[in-house]
Design a protein that fits this description.
Blueprint (H helix, E strand, L loop, with lengths): L8 H27 L3 H29 L19 H43 L8 H41 L4 E5 L4 H6 L8 E3 L2 E7 L2 E12 L6 E12 L7 E6 L2 H9 L6 E2 L5 H6 E5 L2 H7 L2 H12 L7 E5 L2 E7 L19 H30 L4
Antiparallel strand pairs: 1-3, 2-4, 3-4, 4-5, 5-10, 6-8, 6-9, 7-8, 9-10
Length: 394
């Protein structure tokens, strides 16, 4: 592979960094003279302006040299991959590494001119405050410029980094999931209308759901979605649910719909009972379960056939084990969906940044462990029903 020459735009950006330093020097000098007419204002403005102007020009020049596209290294000079997957995944990771380097190059090329442009905008905004009753000082100027630099880099990186992130998931996660059996990955499509219709969660108005592991697992159709539901926005935003929605098709015949939700207090439970619809309260004989959960069903006989003593005991044990919050369940005919809150709170299936090698061992190991952890949740859901079916009848 031949080396590519550095792009001529770097020289233009370097000149822009020097010009930006000059603008900052003039702006500070003008502000000082405007605030303190006379010799003191002139001397303070000139020395402070030159000092900060040189700092800005030097920092800008350093940033330009750091971000400017560099000659590509020869293949023999490339660092060896830190992870040795199978041949198929290895080819995918090699292709992703090419895409990653291209993403990094394009982001850096965009940042070379976007960062100075946004810093210049911040300086002009600072200058505009000098005409008001409470002009910003030099310390504020530095904060304005820092915010401008951050905004410029975010402008350059946001869309491109998200595109690489999606590409990595689409190429790597299906192959990692296939290593666990007849499973795959796809962008999540949670049954939000079912959640709303059956009030599986408290009121929410925004949903984040990116990843779904699906296929056949232990002889049953399986779907696991990472789900985050929130209410409100900004400082008033609160998380209603963050965890897994694990659905399996049970190997037994059940009829109708059964909903099991954590007890929501006197007023919350009253609202549920007044909501109407096909599901009505189901009375159970277990006082501990009755205290912790509210159960609604369209078929009382089927709901009681599902909620055996063994089922309720294991259901209560989910929250007590400390791995999940209090679960909720929605059963429609023989399809059991359980909502298991993530006590750790961290997001799953996060690909590595475009700044890190695509074949990094740490990222691949973490993604593999994420899939294993959601399958443990599926095991718990399947075992929950199997224990109920295997319990001897009195």
């Amino acid at each position: 592979m031949s080396e590519r020459p550095a792009r001529p735009g770097a020289a233009t950006a370097l000149f822009g960094a020097l010009a930006l330093g000059a603008v900052v020097a003039v702006a500070i000098a003008w502000s000082s003279i405007h605030k303190t007419p006379g010799l003191e204002g002139w001397l303070t403005g000139i020395f402070a302006g030159l000092f900060l102007g040189l700092m800005v020009a030097g920092a800008g020049a350093w940033a330009v040299m750091l971000l400017a596209p560099r000659p590509a290294r020869r293949a023999a000079e490339q660092e060896p991959a830190t992870y040795q997957p199978d041949d198929e995944l290895g080819r995918v990771l090699a292709e992703l590494e090419v895409a990653r380097l291209d993403t990094q190059r394009r982001i850096n090329a965009g940042a070379v001119w976007r960062i100075p442009l946004c810093i210049l905008g911040a300086v002009l905004l600072w200058l505009a405050t000098q005409f008001g009753d409470d002009p910003a000082d030099v310390g504020d100027l530095l904060m304005f410029m820092g915010a401008g630099a951050f905004g410029g880099y975010f402008w350059a990186a946001s869309a491109l980094s998200q595109a690489y992130r999606r590409l990595y998931k689409e190429r790597v996660l299906p192959r990692l999931a296939a290593g666990f059996g007849a499973l795959a990955w796809r962008p999540a499509q949670p049954p939000l209308e079912e959640f709303r219709r059956h009030r599986l969660f408290p009121d929410w108005d925004a949903c984040e759901a990116e990843d779904e592991i699906f296929g056949d697992y232990r002889g049953m159709p399986l779907s696991i979605i990472e789900l985050k539901l929130t209410k409100g926005s900004g400082k008033n935003e609160r998380t209603v649910f963050h965890g897994l929605a694990a659905a399996v098709s049970l190997p037994r015949g059940l009829r109708g719909t059964t909903v099991v939700v954590p007890d929501r207090g006197m007023f919350g439970n009253l609202a549920e009972r007044l909501r109407g619809g096909p599901c009505q309260p189901v009375r159970l004989e277990d006082p501990a379960f009755e205290k912790a959960y509210e159960v609604y069903g369209s078929d009382q006989v089927s709901a009681r056939a599902l909620l055996t003593p063994a089922f309720m005991e294991r259901f209560l044990a989910f929250a007590g084990a400390g791995h999940f919050g209090a679960p909720a369940a929605l059963v429609q005919d023989n399809r059991l969906l359980m909502a298991l809150g993530n006590m750790g709170g961290s997001d799953l299936f996060e690909p590595p940044s475009y700044r890190k090698p695509a074949a990094g061992r740490e990222a691949l190991t973490r993604l593999h462990e994420d899939i294993a952890s959601v399958l443990k949740a599926a095991d718990a859901v399947i075992d929950l029903d199997q224990a109920a079916r295997l319990q001897p009848r009195a």
